[in-house]
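S.,

As promised, the zinc ion run. Input:
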Amino acid sequence: MAHGAQRSPLLPPRPDLDLARECEVCLGWGTVVTRDGDHELCHACQPASGGDESLAVTDL
Ligand SMILES: [Zn+2]
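Predicted complex:
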């Protein structure tokens, strides 16, 4: 009785709206829509999550 198919629609990633609030790129949404119609986190205001271990420290 197990349903193999997961029927969850692709939800947009959850942005941090506090960071997005004053962003002009995503207009406060925290996400942007790609040409393919996918939602992805706004690069301008949202910290990159997951993926690469990032450079939390910026030293100049
Ligand atoms: Zn933004």
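Residues 15-48 form one domain. The chain is about 5% helix and 10% strand.

- D.
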